[in-house]
Amino acid sequence: MSGAVAPELSVMRSVAFLAGLVACVFLSPINRASAQSSDYSTLTSPQSAQNWTLTLGAGLHRQPDYLGSNDYVFRPKPIISLGRGLKSTWWSAEDDAISIGFFSGTAWRVGFSGNLLWERKSSVNRALIGVPDVKFGAEAGAFAEFYPASWLRARVDLRRGIAAHDGLVAEMKLDAFARINDTWKLGIGPRMVVTSADYVRTYFGSIPGAAGNGGLLQRFNSGVLSYGAIAQATYNWSERFQTTAYVEYKHLVGDAAKSPVVRTFGSRDSITVGVSASYAFDLGF
């Protein structure tokens, strides 16, 4: 009985946390009328006088062992981001990929998007028996983000798999955020991931002849893989050093949710929590 109640309590706590941050973002004493101030235009413009800044750090996350798993593990994650200025209003979310902004204008920027992928082996998790192993790999592509207001970011990433899979992955994000007294930063927003059929086949297909439906010969469809939301709180210890705590909810849909990897041995719903620390280096140009 306690095993059935625990996941419900976790979901309730996460929903409460998300709701709390929503209240902080939208009820905080921020002058929305000055959202498109001259400072905002300057700090999100390539003509800004600020130098380029390289942000490096690391995080530790408690997340599913693999996408669709109901076994949780702790995993590290690198933080690498390149942008202009320590005081820039560019927003950075905990689930953002490795980002290097190459081009930017007033309230928009585009650049490189990269991600590291953990290997997946049945020898490590017995729930994966009958499922092909997946190599350690990466994803590389590009991102574009736009700020319709100084407190709102819309971002799209498109990446292709390297070594681990041959599919395409598109991530769509919307973040509402607030800065409080130059010390706290709060953010929250919905998420959606769309993938190609090759990606779904790699991570959710099973070996032909194995128990359950699925199978490498089954027809898989491109489309929405998951949707969810993220909420985070960041504390700035100094102008350059910050720490962040976050919680993310994800719900699998489509062919992935129907796969025996998820339906029989895993879960369509997952909650990831984590903390991170990062430091911003002024590159001097």
Helix tally equals 5
Q: Characterize the overall form.
A: globular
The percent range for strand residues is: over 45%
Could you say how many structural domains there are in total? 1
Q: Which residues form runs of ≥5 with pLDDT under 50?
A: 1-7, 27-36, 209-217
Task: Give a description of the structure.
The protein has helices at 2-27, 38-43, 197-204, 254-258, 260-263; strands at 52-64, 72-84, 98-105, 108-117, 137-149, 152-162, 168-180, 184-195, 223-236, 241-252, 269-282. It is of the alpha+beta class and 285 residues long. It has a single domain (2-29, 39-282), classed as monomeric porin ompg (Porin). It has an 11-stranded mixed beta barrel. The longest helix is centred in the N-terminal third of the chain and has 26 residues, at 2-27. It is globular. The N and C termini lie far apart (60 Å). Residues 1-7, 27-36 and 209-217 have low confidence and may be disordered.
Q: How would you describe this structure in keywords?
A:
single chain, Porin, alpha+beta, 11-stranded mixed β-barrel, 17% helix, 285 residues, 5 helices
How are the secondary structure elements laid out?
Blueprint: H1 2-27, H2 38-43, E1 52-64, E2 72-84, E3 98-105, E4 108-117, E5 137-149, E6 152-162, E7 168-180, E8 184-195, H3 197-204, E9 223-236, E10 241-252, H4 254-258, H5 260-263, E11 269-282
Parallel strand pairs: 2-3
Antiparallel strand pairs: 1-2, 1-11, 3-4, 4-5, 5-6, 6-7, 7-8, 8-9, 9-10, 10-11
